[in-house]
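Thread title: Can someone regenerate the structure for this chain?

I was given the following input by a collaborator and told the matching structure tokens would be attached. They weren't. Posting the sequence so someone can regenerate them.
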Amino acid sequence: MFQAFIAGLVLGAMAYGTYEFTNFATLKGWRRRMVAIDLSWGALLTALSAVGGVWIHSIVT
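Best answer:
Regenerated them for you:
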């Protein structure tokens, strides 16, 4: 499960980072604090989703 958490964390950081840094570079009102909070939240949410998927898979199989 730890491996799923780390993989989900990296995937989430990359996915949310693409969105956040694009908006930060192109939109005037996009703040650094918003980037940090949303990027952290997105990475954590994706990591927890990955762990949940592994957990459900272990129950079903």
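The two ends are 15 Å apart (CA to CA).
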